[in-house]
Amino acid sequence: MSGMFGRLYRGETTFNFVGRRWWGFGISIAFVVVTFISLFAQGLNLGIDFKGGVAWEVPATTITIEDVRAILDANNIPTGDAKIQVLNGADGKRIRAQVGEISTETRTVVQTALSAKAQVDVQEVSVASVSSSWGRSITEKAVRALLIFFVIVSMYIAWRFEWKMAIAAILAMVHDVLISVGVYATFGFSVTPATVIAFLTILGFSLYDTIVVFDKVHENTTRYSASKVSYGDIINVSMNQVLMRSINTSLAAVLPVLSLLVLGSWIMGAIALQEFALALLVGMLLGAYSSIYIATPLLAVFKGRELKFRSLQGNLRLGEEMARLGATSKKVVTRTQGDSSTTSTQSDIERETVMASSALSHPPRPRKNRRR
């Protein structure tokens, strides 16, 4: 397999991720600014489970969304903040209307009016009520779970690799959560418990992709420890070697989520799937992006300031030099001796060959004269 795709498949590309890191930082900063503007300007569209309220579901036989809105207006319920949707299920179409907290009397009157308009029994119109205090409790538990997740993850990465990698990974995950929240705030998507579950799921995916890259960086750092190679070169070589794996992982994760969103939600009308799949899709795309353009470049900035790499910080091998450096790290020769096998890199073998040849090429010692 030749060409660009073949080199990408074999991990032989030479993209300069470290040199272009400020492009990624700039794009992310712009998205974070938009996130804060959206949060302060309009806030999040919290579902009934978080802010409390009442929801009715009625079979959509002879009733429409306009009829539901008219019934709410007739009972002095503001429809500006009301959420009215058509749901598709195994028992047919249903219309769901969600509003803020109202009195029990008004709730019963609306239920009766909906059943009369839909020409169904009152018992077929379901009513769900959630208090605002319960919603606050759910929000607090979600935030607490998120903080515990961050602490445990940072401790594991610091133990498995080093604390600078832990900081870079945590900042990348915070980046993913912030921008995901910004997408929901900007487009007014409803935030439900399913959304929170999806956010926690995408943090795990983002962390997995970041750990894959960090593991290769850690491996190459050990491999080049005895040579004068800048940390930026180590990052570039490692990123190019695992780039195809990151792309494959992201595609394999995004395609099922797309099928949930397009087929399950938009075509079949399962709105509950939309709340979960949309958050997953946004988060997975951000997770793949942040592992390449946020977490690893941040690590390059942190490690590049160390005494060992500071003098080499501006030296980046590009093009053919990067390709040769990556090829050196991939050439591994296994030598079998009896029942045991040892592994060494090509550079080690070449060094051993030179030492062996020099040892065998010394001038012969002068022969002693024999006594007669």
Provide a descriptive summary of the structure in words.
The protein has helices at 3-9, 21-41, 48-51, 65-74, 104-118, 132-160, 163-187, 193-223, 231-267, 271-304, 307-310, 320-330, 346-360; strands spanning 45-46, 53-59, 83-89, 92-99, 126-130, 190-191, 332-337, 340-345. The chain is of the alpha+beta class and 372 residues long. The chain folds into two domains: 19-44 and 134-310, Multidrug efflux transporter AcrB transmembrane domain (Multidrug efflux transporter AcrB transmembrane fold, Up-down Bundle), CATH 1.20.1640.10; 53-130, Alpha-Beta Plaits, CATH 3.30.70. The strands form three sheets. The chain has a four-stranded antiparallel beta sheet with strand order 3-4-2-5. A hairpin with a 2-residue loop joins strand 3 and strand 4.
